[in-house]
Write a structure and sequence with these properties.
Layout (H helix, E strand, L loop, with lengths): L7 H11 L29 H12 L9 E2 L12 H7 L2 H4 L11 H18 L3 E2 L6 H16 L3 E4 L5 H14 L2 E3 L11 H4 L4 E7 L11 H9 L3 E6 L11 H4 L3 E5 L15 E5 L10 E7 L5 E8 L3 H4 L12 H38 L5 E2 L7 E5 L4 H10 L2 E2 L2 E2 L1 H4 L8 E5 L6 H16 L1
Parallel strand pairs: 1-13, 3-4, 3-5, 5-6, 6-7
Antiparallel strand pairs: 2-8, 7-8, 9-10, 11-12, 12-15, 14-15
Helix pairs in contact: 3-12, 5-12, 6-7, 12-15
Length: 449
Amino acid sequence: MRYLPISDADRQRMLAKIGVASVDDLFNHIPAAVRLKKPLDLPHHQGEMEVERHMTALAAKNIGATKASMFLGAGAYNHHIPAAVDHLIQRGEFLTSYTPYQPELAQGTLQYLFEFQTQVAMITGMEVANASMYDGSTAAAEAVMMANRITKRQEVIVSSLVHPHYLAVIETHARFGGFKVASEPMVIGREEKLTKMIHDQISCVVVQTPDFFGNLHDFTELAKACQAKGALLIVIVTEIISLGLLKSPGEMGADIVVAEGQSLGNALSFGGPYVGLFATREKYIRQMPGRLAGQTTDADGKRGWVLTLSTREQHIRREKATSNICTNSGLCALAFTIHLSLLGEVGFRRLAETNHARASLLASEIGKIRGVSIINKTFFNEFTVVLPKSAKITVDRLASYGIMGGIPMTRFYGRQLELSHVLLICATEMNTENEIESFAKVLRKVLND
């Protein structure tokens, strides 16, 4: 309370007004056993310069993407962001904006959300997209709950090749939302038989391409199998730049597409904030979470924008609302839109081609190292290798050379013996040919030591 600019007398008058004797009375609903008995052991107030020095020292302990050769992926990707993106989103009218509660007064905000939706719908191959979600994982959980509402079923199949964090978020919602999640045990290199798992009570099947291990998939036949049983197909895309080259989920027959949009316009930022993408078929639009900006004409016939749909209605329906999402990642969505606009269709495809080319070069160089095997038959800019030594120990050794050389699979699946030598590696346009050659050279040295 020491930072509140009120006196003890002011505080007592406020407490008396609401009918309690002390501030502690405001926390009576919290069990006494879990309440703090004394203040946390945190430093007392300091001057601005002291705080800046302290925070700078803490930040210096991290290694940012610009301080080392980065070959990390797994749902967060190191891409170049044009200087124009940050310059534009830091304009005052954008930087201070929030989801408009008098939406038609905020024509600029609605226009860029409309453009964002158009871009997302186009690259995913879907008919409609919303004004963004918090991130890809929460978008995936919202998609599952949307499918449950549409089908009026409560059983879900999730591929074992879906990003473990996405699966965890879906399972968390399932635990409190009352629906069941089925998934086969994850076995590297094994073909999943998801079609055989679908029955008349399945709400949806959740899959990912490129999957968590980097493999590419065409889910056209799976989509047909889902349709035959009245289930929906949800496709996750964690690397949105892959859609510059690959067949879109919409073309495969997906009913809902969710994706992480961080790769366009948004920095790694040690994990956030990111921007979730959500697209679906027009017939399901009323069940889509979040907001939808639309185009119209005003009384004078001029082009304008409106908030066409806001299905959550939490300000009215509360826990009965369609969605948990209360807002949208507006600034991150704007950064996405500016970056993709600067690229254009040709640039977007060229960027995807460059990513695949760099990853192919890296796979070729690493594949020459004795004892290293690449398990992927196909990949975009990320692939999985099996090393002759512990992946964790290898990564630690690579870090000592200034190379962030991939992510051990034990980080995600625990200390499973069959995964101890498995490493997930990614290359993007940020990795030069010299960096790739250096990585392969150092990896060979580390493995031979």
